[in-house]
Specification:
heterodimer, A: 370 residues, mainly alpha, 2 domains, B: 411 residues, Cytochrome-c3 Hydrogenase, chain B, three-stranded antiparallel β-sheet, 8 strands
């Protein structure tokens, strides 16, 4: 009796999962074959269930990992090119050192994690781990074509609100480190948070006003012309804000290694250091996905019949990676601004730019009579 | 120094107790009570070099910087007392190995003063060539350090790559990349062939080309200007009062260059200008050195073009083969004794005025006392004063703008 009840339950689950599966014609025969095997079919159905596929595979966790591995490599390589160097090459020479970041990650994994005497041990180790919450949660609200985690008309504001939680965790890390440089770095992080958050939100607001909706599906649908052409001012404001938000040069202020020795992260070592240092990249990935949805037509792209549901996912992923590569270039061109210069710039130029973008959006609406 | 207990309502960090700091107890207590923050920058810090900077900040503004140098002190002056005069040449260039030409030159000139040795013209030109090559190399090195201190990684890599040209010429002339020890009393170790000289001249064109690119990416970069302009200002009076030397003195508007005031070697034969800036801020200090590189390049071309023929070793030193010291080194120098007295020379090294004083007792083959003041030590006080009143983030920018080099200062 109990056996049959369990069987019915599994059947029910399988039915729910298969009703909303990612269909990829390319690997369809393989999926069909796997679906015939009991037990395995539940796992396959689970992984290919759209919300889970979105969060775990693309553009979710696996995508995030790929981005981390690729971006660190690409950034080092492109910086090396600019600087008359070769860049990472020793690890896996035949591929030109593509797995350098992976090798670094493994090295971190085998390194001792030192919790120094003055640290607030509990929070010191907690914050790097729970800082993944505001990284992974916004991903749920960023759809990719027919693959999405949670569908909401307020998806973009929710994602932004969750992303803006990240600095809180960084400040917490700095506080738990109980180190002078970490303290200075946290204060700098807090200042920078105020510097970019308002222009960023206003510029996003300008785009939401322009599209008259905060639903990513609607936004992508309405972009017959890419958003960057409709409101370049908003793009500029968001681009600079992203540079500040992710501590990229020339705004590498909270973690300036020559000044405050990586600021909030100064006391971390081993894999925990690897985790906290990947935070800015993860933040960059999220903001890139959002920017691609708003300005570059999201997951729109040439249809690839063989890939089915996967094609739009790939398009948004590739667009986001290209966007990040452009951001990575800034590293080899600029020196670091000072904190007060950045604050002055963001509270005058950047905020004016974002308000101007708001006006531009309003102008479009008035002109089109919407 | 003894350990001490601070009379504060909190437990002070361990570093206050046992690092043997050059700080009075009152300083730390006063800083705590007046709500200031004392930050220890270094010696294991990305932006400190081999020294500790004890920075007292009020909010984000630096109230006072106390240096704690001496981490790379090698007691050159004492070591020099136990070595032959000739053995001191490699020793005394150690403080700044990339600028060995100037460091050899000052010491060797002091010996030549004492022994009244006449140096052949060709040797003088080769010595000047080495000194100017070293000056370019050092200025490029300092530009790289400045760039990385303000976070510009490309500005760090490019000058180091450009310095490879200089190093290559050094290799061809002296046989080593750094620490050439090429200048010996009475001339230089061996003659330089015309092919190498021609290459040195060609190198200056390639270097000039690269410096133009460097100017676009770093020198004229808006972020660089924002970070360095009106930062770390030393007025003319302050610069003189604190005894700043070299390009950093000239950046504050003082026209003083030993090469012009008391010309030595071939400097009076060639055409060049003193580079002077008037702002006294970090950017001017940097630009003065950039302009000095251009001056040195023009000097090298003139030196190669006007290089006289002849011997490179003096008659007073060696009787035969005056083009190469190899084989007669010990014969010529091992029993060198200076007449009793005190001999002082001033040299314009890349980072400023370099002073050597040799005191000889007139009977031993080693100096009785050797006084050796490097430019780094001279402008340390000026560097500390220039930081006051600027932001904590400016500390590294000012540091870089001075091109402070602890091994050089500590000797």
């Amino acid at each position: 009796m109990a056996e049959s009840a369990l069987f019915v339950l599994v059947e029910k689950i399988l039915e729910t999962l298969t009703s909303n599966m990612v269909s990829i014609p390319l690997i369809d025969p393989l999926i069909k074959m796997l679906m015939k095997i009991p037990a395995v079919n539940v796992i396959v159905a689970f992984v290919l269930w759209k919300p889970i596929f979105h969060v775990l595979i693309l553009p979710g966790l696996l995508g995030l990992t790929l981005v981390l591995l690729f971006m660190i490599y690409f950034e080092r390589k492109i910086t090396a090119r600019v600087q008359w160097r070769v860049g990472p090459k020793e690890v896996s020479r035949r591929t030109g050192g593509v797995i350098q970041a992976l090798a670094d990650g493994m090295r971190y994994l085998f390194q001792e994690v030192i919790v120094h005497r003055d640290a607030h041990g509990f929070y010191f180790l907690q914050f790097p781990l729970i800082s993944f919450l505001p990284v992974l949660l916004p991903l749920l609200f960023i759809p990719a074509g027919s693959v999405w985690g949670i569908r909401s008309v307020y998806a973009i504001p929710i994602a932004l609100a969750l992303i803006s939680l990240i600095p809180v965790f960084i400040i917490g890390m700095g506080w738990a480190s109980n180190n002078k440089f970490a303290f200075i770095g946290s204060v700098r992080e807090a200042f920078m948070y105020f510097a970019y958050e308002i222009p960023l939100l206003i510029a996003f607001l300008a785009m939401i006003l322009l599209y008259q909706t905060a639903d990513p599906f609607e936004i992508v649908e309405r972009q017959s012309i890419p958003g960057i052409l409709l409101n370049p001012l908003a793009f500029l404001a968001i681009f600079i804000s992203i540079l500040i938000a992710t501590s990229r040069l020339p705004f590498d202020i909270p973690e300036a290694d020559q000044e405050v020795a990586f600021g909030p992260y100064v006391e971390y070592s081993g894999i925990v250091f690897g985790l906290v240092m990947s935070l800015p990249y993860e933040k960059l990935y999220l903001l890139s996905l959002l920017s691609v949805i708003l300005f570059f037509g999201g997951w729109k792209g040439p249809e690839i019949p063989l890939l089915g549901d996967l094609a739009p996912v790939l398009w948004i992923f590739i667009k986001a990676v290209i966007f990040m590569c452009v951001v990575a270039l800034a590293r080899s061109i600029y020196a670091r601004y000072r904190l007060d210069q950045t604050l002055k710039m963001s509270w005058s130029v950047l905020i004016t730019l974002s308000f101007a973008s708001l006006l531009l959006s309003a102008g479009w609406l008035a002109w089109l009579g919407l | 120094m003894e350990e001490y207990v601070l009379d504060l309502p909190v437990s002070p960090p361990k570093e206050y107790e046992s690092y043997f700091l050059p700080l009075p107890k009152e300083f730390l207590e006063d800083a705590y009570k007046s709500d200031d923050f004392v930050v220890f920058v270094g010696p294991q810090h990305g932006g400190s070099g081999h020294m500790r900077l004890i920075v007292r900040v009020k909010g984000d503004f630096i109230v006072e910087v106390i240096p704690d140098p001496g981490y790379v002190h090698r007691s050159m002056e004492k070591l020099a007392e136990n070595r032959l005069y000739i053995q001191n040449i490699p020793l005394l260039e150690r403080p700044s190995i990339i600028d060995f030409g100037n460091y050899n030159l000052g010491y060797v000139r002091a010996i030549e003063d004492a022994l009244d040795i006449e140096v052949p013209e060709r040797a003088k030109y080769i010595r000047t060539l080495l000194a100017e090559l070293g000056r370019i190399g050092t200025h490029l090195y300092d530009a790289g350090i400045l760039a990385v201190f303000i976070g510009h990684t490309t500005g760090f890599m490019w000058p180091f790559a450009m310095r490879e040209y200089i190093v290559e010429i050094f290799t061809r002339i002296t046989g080593t990349r750094i620490t050439g020890s090429f200048i010996v009393p009475g001339g230089v170790r061996r003659d330089v062939d015309s092919k190498t000289l021609e290459m040195a001249k060609k190198m200056t064109y390639a270097l000039e080309n690269r410096i133009k690119k460097f100017e676009r990416v770093f020198i004229k970069n808006p972020t660089t200007i924002a970070r360095l302009k009106e930062v770390g200002v030393l007025s003319r009076e302050d610069a003189v009062r604190y005894g700043v030397v070299g390009p950093f003195l000239r950046a504050s508007g003082v026209e003083y260059d030993v090469r012009k005031v008391e010309p030595y070697e071939a400097y009076s034969d060639i055409d060049w200008d003193i580079v002077v800036g008037y702002e006294g801020d970090g950017y001017t200090r940097f630009l003065v050195r950039v302009e000095e590189v251009a001056q040195s390049i023009s000097m090298i071309r003139q030196l190669v073009d006007n290089m006289p023929d002849g011997n490179v070793l003096s008659d007073d030193i060696i009787a035969f083969n005056k083009r190469d010291i190899r084989g007669s080194f010990f014969e010529s120098y091992a029993d060198m004794v200076l007449p009793e007295g005190e001999y002082t020379t001033l040299t314009e090294a890349a980072r400023g005025t370099l002073l050597y004083t040799i005191v000889s007792d007139g009977e031993s083959t080693t100096p009785y006392r050797l006084r050796f003041v490097t430019p780094g030590w001279m402008y340390l006080k000026g560097f500390m004063e220039a930081c006051k009143g600027y932001r904590l983030a400016d500390l590294q920018a000012i540091y870089g703008s001075f091109g402070y080099f602890p091994p050089e200062a500590d000797r």
